[in-house]
Amino acid sequence: MKLNIALLPGDGIGPDVVEQAVKSLQAVADAFGHTFHFEEALVGAVAIDKTGDPLPEETLEVCRRSHAVLFGAIGDPKYDNDPKAKVRPEQGLLKLRKSLGLFTNIRPVKAYPTLIEKSPLKKEIISGTDFTIYRELTGGIYFGEKKLSENGTVASDLCEYSEAEIERIAHLAFKAARSRRNKLTLVDKANVLETSRLWRRVVTAIGKSYPDVELDFLFVDNAAMQIILNPGQFDVILTENMFGDIISDEGSVIGGSIGLLASASVGSDNAMFEPIHGSYPQAKGKDIANPVASILSAAMLLEHFNLKEEAEAVKNAVEKSLEKGVVTPDLDKDSKFGTNKVGDFIADFILHAEDTTQVNKENIE
Ligand code: IPM
Ligand code: MN
């Protein structure tokens, strides 16, 4: 298969981790006889620095002419504490999601047996956790009208959803549940918000076409509690934009590091793959960032194009690295391995999986 992949490394550790994901994709191309063509473009604070725009038109064009986008991270502290900043790096990511129509964000949460001790949560609680969050990504409070009164003392952000916006992601979430353990949980705040009541009505109606999927509802405050009390109860969680943002960071604690969580953002014509972690600017270029979330995002890219065996090869290689302790310091503070070594190990394992004896800790030290 020939794929054109746009690379948007972005800010902070984005470039560090995207480089490792590219190594894995290149290894897949070599091992399975595919051709992946990569084209890099600017986004975020680096794009503002070079062009004044967090999402230059040229970047959008590169994304549009590619089959998929591999995204790094976005954000720079110099914009975070400046309430008057007119342009912000995050606007680049939001505009990209909107312009490419990426309305569904898929975030798998898993407790890896080999990392079970790394989580701050008790292992009896998280053991066996395996759920996926379907987060709506192009609507809700993120994109509603924003207002600030003239004297700057009153502000508002509108949260708005239409039936059509809810329907299209709900179908994808029901289908996902069908291919998993047949359970879908809608997370909302229907006891308070009108938009949440609309979500319940639309999702309940759609549920009638998926009688084999058990549908239940949780208020988001309770969901936040249940995710760390009893994460094993979840299969697919469906939720709106901001709730999904919040509970997916919470979910990352289960796996032991936010550096492990991958995501896919899909729409009708395009797809983008990105780690859920932020730009972690303190670690930029220090060879300590965990590349696994980015590499697993590349695996989701392969799955998206139905390259199942290839995606499995990447995931197996990642699991092998975790098993062998070839991990970055976020997972083992005494680790001797950095971003690059972990990336090399995984790429190497993809290429030589049949001979695991060649790939061991000693060889890459
Ligand atoms: C995420 C991030 C983004 C979001 C930010 C960077 C705008 O936190 O992808 O979860 O809030 O969606
Ligand atoms: Mn987030």
How is this structure best described in words?
- This protein is of the alpha/beta class and 365 residues long.
- The protein folds into two domains: 1-103 and 266-365, Isopropylmalate Dehydrogenase (3-Layer(aba) Sandwich), CATH 3.40.718.10; 119-255, Isopropylmalate Dehydrogenase (3-Layer(aba) Sandwich).
- It has helices spanning 14-32, 45-51, 57-64, 77-80, 89-99, 123-126, 163-178, 194-207, 220-229, 241-255, 292-304, 308-323, 339-352, 361-364, and strands at residues 2-10, 35-40, 68-73, 104-110, 130-136, 146-148, 155-157, 183-188, 214-219, 236-239, 262-266, 271-275.
- The strands form two sheets. Strands 2-1-3-12-11-4-5-10-8-9 form a ten-stranded mixed β-sheet, sandwiched between helices. Strands 6-7 form a two-stranded antiparallel sheet.
- Bound molecules: 3-isopropylmalic acid and manganese (II) ion.
- The site of 3-isopropylmalic acid has 7 residues, from α5.
Topology diagram in text:
Layout: E1 2-10, H1 14-32, E2 35-40, H2 45-51, H3 57-64, E3 68-73, H4 77-80, H5 89-99, E4 104-110, H6 123-126, E5 130-136, E6 146-148, E7 155-157, H7 163-178, E8 183-188, H8 194-207, E9 214-219, H9 220-229, E10 236-239, H10 241-255, E11 262-266, E12 271-275, H11 292-304, H12 308-323, H13 339-352, H14 361-364
Parallel strand pairs: 1-2, 1-3, 3-12, 5-10, 8-9, 8-10
Antiparallel strand pairs: 4-5, 4-11, 6-7, 11-12
Helix pairs in contact: 1-11, 1-13, 7-8, 9-10, 11-12, 12-13
The chain binds 3-isopropylmalic acid and manganese (II) ion.
Residues 245, 249 line the site of manganese (II) ion.
Pathway: Amino-acid biosynthesis; L-leucine biosynthesis; L-leucine from 3-methyl-2-oxobutanoate: step 3/4
EC number: 1.1.1.85
Subunit structure: Homodimer.
